Amino acid sequence: MSNATDIRQSGGTAGSVDHTDTGLAVSRTIPMPPTDTLYRAALTFCLDGADVMMYAALKGAESAESLWHALAQSHPSQPSGICGPALSRIDRMFVDGLTRWGRKASANAMCSFRNALAGWHNRMMDLPSQDIIQLGDWFTMDGTQWIIGPGHPCWPSQLADLSIRSDWAPPLCLWIKGDPRALTSCAKPVGIVGSRDVTEYGRYVAHTVAEQAVVAGHLVVSGGAMGTDAAAHWGALNALHGRMPANVGRTVAVFAGGLNHIGPMRNRTLFERIEAQGGALISELCPGTIPEARRFLLRNRIIAAMSSTLIVTQARLRSGALNTAGWACELLRDVYAVPGDINQPCNAGCNKMIGDHRAMILCAATSTEDICHERHKPVMAACPGIPKSTGQDSSENEEAMEAPATTPLSPASSESSASQESSQDSGHSKRLRTKHTQPTLVQSKDGPASATAEAGANKSKGEEPPSSHQMPDLRVKPKLDPEKEAQQRIIIAKLPEMERTLVALIRECRKRHLIVTPDALLRVARETVPDEIPNIGTILELLGALELRGVIERDAGILKLSSRVG
């Protein structure tokens, strides 16, 4: 492990993050966290989750550093001459913190504090070193993760609302991968949550509402899980297509474990895209923390606190999304629920929330004007380690012509619109490039090579390199000329029987106007060929084989047949 003090002396940089996979070679340095933030990270390491005792003690201490030293000196292994005075000092910090918090220091509270203190003493000995300044690289995973505290310009101030009750506590600090400015890019973010086993109806609503919110410049917050969360994040990311990055909002995923344990792995591409398009992955927990089930419930409070408006798109009666909605109600957030078929258990949670008057009805997915504040551009706060003038924030971008707004993604139109866009984008992107050197995702369909060439030209002129928000879609394959395309035509009849069956299921999903996903394919398979495709594992295996053959393509998690399929 490199020495954190040497890093400070060499410029205060903990590391750098290269998005070389985007084809634009964008680099961002991550500065070493301030001393107080490092001590907050060390105190977080001692916790097993949100801890009101630690929050109160820190509130009564002069700084996180002074609390840490009192904690270290009060350890039972210290001589009595050091341990005794330190215990008195840390008790006084706790009492002062309770007073500042507007609480009373009862005998039960002091007993609970001493029990918590014993747990902190045990955990602090697991640190690689007791010299916290030397652990800068360790806490930031060799400079690949930001750590910010309440004094940082990108700290979400609404997290302070978590202290309104004596049994709640805000995070001491946050670990971040991506752009920390996303957290404060919108004054009133929109949270979108729901079940993992979401139906096509719930997936469509989450995707569409998120896209519409981000088009209006708002921040979308969710949990990065499968189902509703993934649909919301993809909807937010898709809003960038055909629009200037400076005008669209961002998305933030909140995790229940350390950021080196983000999951599920099926969403790995999603997480990479969130980072590359200016969003952020965040956690209140140290790297290495396992995302246990109970930590997801604590994670939900951060989603609720960060959101000004929370939308539950689909939830069962025992869904974790209802836990998030409960936090939001306690925090006096605006809570909306999407009504659904009363005969479907997957809609029972939302319907009950509406019936109990704990949520308002979301009347439309295609417009967020009635539930969000006014349209705006993302506010990019000055952040140490990020240049003030990046490509997406330049005045040239603000003056440039913006691509026409696309219609919200719908199950019926998501695939049929692709061919129309490809013909319109070529002419439109040329007009945009006459005024812009930075391609949008739509413009980058001309190929990663052209984007790299433009980046090189800009660099030779002394201009800023393009932002990672303009990441070309590397999954788009270059177009073949008609003769070569005819030679490489894929004949479905020549495929193995099981693969032909899956192609038929994909076409059946399109016929039913469903978004083609593995879950949708499994549902259709259970209705039509239950004996041939018994489980999701078979679906994923066949999809992998078809993708290797070039039969199918993926666009933001949605499957479609290749244009070469005959």
Walkthrough of the structure:
- The protein has helices spanning 4-9, 35-45, 52-60, 64-73, 80-100, 107-124, 136-139, 200-215, 228-238, 268-276, 293-306, 320-330, 348-355, 395-399, 416-433, 448-460, 482-487, 497-511, 518-528, 536-549; strands at 13-19, 26-31, 146-148, 174-178, 190-193, 220-222, 251-254, 280-283, 309-312, 334-337, 360-361, 552-555, 558-561.
- The chain is of the alpha/beta class and 566 residues long.
- Among the domains are: 4-13 and 28-144, no CATH class; 391-476, no CATH class; 485-561, Winged helix-like DNA-binding domain superfamily/Winged helix DNA-binding domain (Arc Repressor Mutant, subunit A).
- It has a 9-stranded mixed sheet, with helices on both faces. It has a two-stranded antiparallel sheet with strand order 1-2.
- The longest helix has 21 residues, at 80-100.
- The protein is elongated and about 85 Å long.
- Mean pLDDT is 81; it is low at 1-12, 16-28 and 390-478.
Shape: elongated
Poorly predicted spans: 1-12, 16-28, 390-478
Radius of gyration computed on alpha carbons: 26 Å
Query: What topology, given as strand order, has the largest sheet?
Result: 3-4-8-7-6-5-9-10-11
Number of strand segments: 13
Helix content: 40-55%
What oligomerization state is this entry in? single chain
Structural class per helix/strand content?
A: alpha/beta
In this structure, how is the largest beta sheet organized? 9 strands, mixed
Q: Give the terminus-to-terminus CA distance.
A: 56 Å
Mean pLDDT equals: 81
Number of helices: 20
How big a fraction of the residues is strand? 5-15%
Biased composition (Low complexity): 402-424
Domain Smf/DprA SLOG: 147-373
Biased composition (Polar residues): 1-11
Family: Belongs to the DprA/Smf family.
